[in-house]
C-alpha cells in the first residue's frame, strides 16, 4: 500500500463549455507569425490553420491530462481500489475515462480534414467559414461528452477525500452502531477532529487521525468509520460498506464501541449482534483482535452497564468503560492500545 492518496493528482475536469471557451480563445490569441511577402490568401490560410492546430493542441492536452492523472484502478492496493468502487463505481469511472480518451483521435482526424479543406479554399471568406465550421463540429463532439465530464469531476471531488493510510503505523478501526460515540472517541484519541452530533449516520465516510504523544512521536493511526446496522450485507448501503471495508483491509485492531443506554436510539441486542458478525466475519478469519469499549458511562445506569456485560459474558476488567464526551478513561484506551502494539507485529 502506498503512502499517499493515489487520487491526489486527479486533474480538475472542466465542463464541455469551459474546455471549449478556453481552447478557442487561447487559439485565437496565439496567431502565426508569417513572412511579409506571402500572398494574402496564403497568409489567411496559414492563420486559420494555425488557429485550428492551436485549439486542438490545447483541448487534447487538457483531455489527456485528465485521463493520465487517474491511476490504473486494477493496480491499486485493495483498500483504495475497493473504496473507490464504493464511492464512484470503478466500472463507470473506467468507461468514462475511455470515452474521453476516445475523442482525442476523433478531434485529431477532424483537424486533419479541415487543414486540407482550408488548404484548398479559394477565398479568405471561405477559409474563415471552414474554421468556424471546424469549431462548430469540434464543439459538438466535446459537448456530447458533457455528462461524462460532469461525472468525472464528481469522481474527482469524492476521491480527493480518500484518506491517506500510513503503512508504517498500525491501524485502529473504531466501529460500532451509529451514534454510539465513535467519532467522539476518535477526536479524543487522535489528531482527527471528526464531526460529532446527536443524530445517527453523522459520519458518512472513513476518516483518519494519528495518535501522537506529548513528544510528537506517532504511534498508531485511528480510523473513524460510519455506523453499521445489524442487517444482511446485501441490505447495507455504501456508507456502511466503507466501515466494513476498513475492517476488512486496514484494521490491525478493532475498537468496538457500545452505547449501553438508549441515547443512541439503538438497542443493546442489535449492537451485540453486530459485534458477533464482526467477530465471525473479520476478526476470526483475519486474526484481528477486538477491544470492547462501553461508552457514555456518565449517562448510563449501573444496571445498563451490568446487563450489557452479562449479555457479553464479560467482566468489567475485560472491557474499557469510557465517557468519551468528557474525556474520561480515554487514557485507558490509549494505554491498552500501546501495550497491544508493543507485543504485536502489525504488518498485514
Ligand atoms: N453523555 C455522553 N454523550 C456522548 C459520549 N460520547 C459521545 N456522546 C454523544 O453522542 C452523540 C453521538 O456521538 P458521535 O461521536 O457523533 O457518534 P458516532 O458513533 O460517531 O455516530 P455516527 O457517526 O452517526 O455513527 C453526540 O451527541 C455526542 O456528544 C459520552 O461518553 N457520554
Ligand atoms: Mg461518527
Automatic annotation (TrEMBL):
Residues 172-296 form the G domain. InterPro entries: GTP-bd, NOG1_N, P-loop_NTPase, Small_GTP-bd. GO terms for molecular function: hydrolase activity. The keyword Thylakoid does not apply. Residues 7-165 form the NOG1 N-terminal helical domain. Residues 42-69 form a coiled coil. Its EC number is 3.6.5.-. The keyword Ion transport does not apply. Keywords: Coiled coil, Hydrolase. This is GTPase Obg.
Amino acid at each position: 500500500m502506498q503512502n499517499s492518496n493515489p487520487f491526489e493528482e486527479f486533474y480538475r475536469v472542466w465542463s464541455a463549455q469551459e474546455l471549449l471557451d478556453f481552447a478557442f480563445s487561447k487559439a485565437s490569441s496565439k496567431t502565426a507569425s508569417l513572412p511579409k511577402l506571402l500572398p494574402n490568401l496564403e497568409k489567411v490560410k496559414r492563420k486559420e490553420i494555425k488557429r485550428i492546430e492551436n485549439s486542438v493542441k490545447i483541448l487534447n492536452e487538457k483531455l489527456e491530462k485528465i485521463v493520465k492523472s487517474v491511476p490504473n484502478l486494477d493496480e491499486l492496493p485493495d483498500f483504495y481500489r475497493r473504496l473507490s468502487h464504493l464511492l464512484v463505481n470503478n466500472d463507470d469511472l473506467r468507461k468514462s475515462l475511455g470515452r474521453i480518451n476516445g475523442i482525442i483521435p476523433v478531434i485529431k482526424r477532424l483537424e486533419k480534414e479541415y487543414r486540407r479543406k482550408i488548404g484548398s479554399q479559394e477565398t479568405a471568406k471561405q477559409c474563415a467559414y471552414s474554421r468556424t465550421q471546424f469549431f462548430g463540429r469540434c464543439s459538438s463532439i466535446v459537448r456530447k461528452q458533457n455528462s461524462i465530464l460532469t461525472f468525472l469531476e464528481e469522481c474527482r471531488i469524492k476521491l480527493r477525500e480518500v484518506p491517506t493510510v500510513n503503512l508504517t503505523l498500525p491501524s485502529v478501526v473504531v466501529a460500532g452502531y451509529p451514534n454510539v460515540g465513535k467519532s467522539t472517541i476518535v477526536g479524543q484519541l487522535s489528531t482527527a477532529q471528526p464531526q460529532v452530533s446527536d443524530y445517527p449516520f453523522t459520519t458518512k465516510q472513513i476518516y483518519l487521525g494519528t495518535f501522537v504523544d506529548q513528544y510528537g512521536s506517532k504511534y498508531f493511526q485511528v480510523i473513524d468509520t460510519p455506523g453499521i446496522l445489524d442487517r444482511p450485507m446485501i441490505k447495507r448501503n455504501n456508507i456502511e460498506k466503507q466501515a466494513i471495508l476498513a475492517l476488512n483491509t486496514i484494521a490491525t485492531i478493532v475498537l468496538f464501541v457500545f452505547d449501553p443506554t438508549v441515547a443512541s436510539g439503538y438497542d443493546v441486542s442489535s449492537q451485540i449482534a453486530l459485534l458477533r458478525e464482526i467477530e465471525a466475519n473479520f476478526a476470526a478469519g483475519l486474526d484481528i483482535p477486538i477491544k470492547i469499549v462501553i461508552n457514555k458511562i456518565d449517562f448510563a445506569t449501573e444496571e445498563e452497564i451490568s446487563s450489557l456485560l452479562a449479555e457479553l459474558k464479560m467482566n468489567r476488567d475485560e472491557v474499557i468503560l469510557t465517557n468519551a464526551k468528557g474525556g474520561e478513561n480515554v487514557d485507558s484506551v490509549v494505554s491498552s492500545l500501546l501495550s497491544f502494539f508493543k507485543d504485536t507485529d502489525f504488518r498485514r
